[in-house]
Amino acid sequence: MVLFRIASVMLALLSLLLLVVALVSDNWLKVTVAEGSHFGLWRSCGSQNCNFYPTVPGFFHTVRFLMILAMIAGFLSAFALLASFFCSHFRAVSLTLVCTVGSFSAG
């Protein structure tokens, strides 16, 4: 049973790391017409240089907000998983339930 808990903590931390990498990555969209062009949530890159967006559409702010919210939920899930090694409940709330809700919210 402890082995499953350790594996779940490792997988939760791995998913949190992948969320952070996805959030800061500039490779959300690659354009094949202009060789070497790719775009992320924070900046766009041409063949040699990257620039931050001067203005962004509203849905960019929504995607940024949801990604940051997913990161917070993933961190909460990983923290609750680590805390579940020491106690199973925090007051009246089951830490396993917190982990489950946090993991599903993180995506």
From TrEMBL:
Pfam assignment, any one: PMP22_Claudin
Keyword Translocase: no
Signal peptide segment: 1-22
PROSITE patterns per the UniProt record, alphabetical: PMP22_1 (PS01221)
Keyword Transmembrane helix: yes
Matches recorded under Gene3D superfamilies: 1.20.140.150
Key words of the record: Membrane, Signal, Transmembrane, Transmembrane helix
Predominant localisation class: membrane
Transmembrane segments: 65-87
Entry's Gene Ontology cellular component terms: plasma membrane
Cell location: Membrane
Coiled coil: none
Xref: InterPro entries: PMP-22/EMP/MP20-like, PMP22/EMP/MP20/Claudin, PMP22_EMP_MP20
Membrane-protein topology: Multi-pass membrane protein
Family of this protein: Belongs to the PMP-22/EMP/MP20 family.
Protein name: Protein NKG7-like
Species for this entry: Chelydra serpentina
